[in-house]
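Intended use. Records like the one below are meant for learning the mapping from a protein sequence to its folded structure. Do not use them to infer anything beyond what is encoded.
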Amino acid sequence: SSLWPLPQRAKTFLALSSSAGAAARAASFATMDRAACAVHRRELWGPRRLTCEASSKPLRSAAAADPRALDGMSPLQELCNAATMLVPSLVCAYMWLALPYPGLRCLRTALIFGGCLMHLPFSFTYHLLLAGRRLGDAAANVPRKLDQTFIHVTCISSTWALSPTISYGFLAFTLNIYFVARLWSKTNTMFERMINIGLATLLYGLPSLLRGDCAEFAMGASFFLAGASAMVLGLRGWGHSVMHLFMGGIAFLSMRSAWQLG
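Structure written out for the chain above:
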């Protein structure tokens, strides 16, 4: 059926020929465009499709288009990232002060606790800067590099705390120094950085498996994989904070393993 019935066409024609013809013509064209778009939409996609040729490309949100936003996260989500970054250090502090296990305070647990404390200010500051949109590029900046550099520093101290031999500790130290060098290189990629952090974390998780403590390794791997999955999935911008919470579980297991080694 025709979009415009005959009487309507006649009225429109008279309006276009009147003294206010210019205004009526503009309104008429707009009405025709909307009607044509609606018919085009129904014919191609059905009544529930809310798009047409003029708007077929999805529009990105302002947050996703903002280079100052890491993975499109909002300022509130970045503040939450900064707050949840306290969790691993708080877990270590609780265990150090409350002594849930007798004789927990020793050199090995001090290395775990110290590693968390060294990383905390750099990560906390980075997320606060992202929340305030103070960085022109959320990824290509010095605070991000410092944050990830001290992730590797934490991995070094944790590996030394849990290492079965001195040679294994030196191996982990050498690899993490290489990872840090790559981190500051101009040719690295995000994928490479994430793989290197994963390998560095695995290096201080492997000693429990080498000791035959499969249950401890499985629990640590579960916390790590759950956190990594939350970060990759995004969870509408909350995945990074969820990952920080799972790091608290890793901190607990690391402190307990270091205590068992004495």
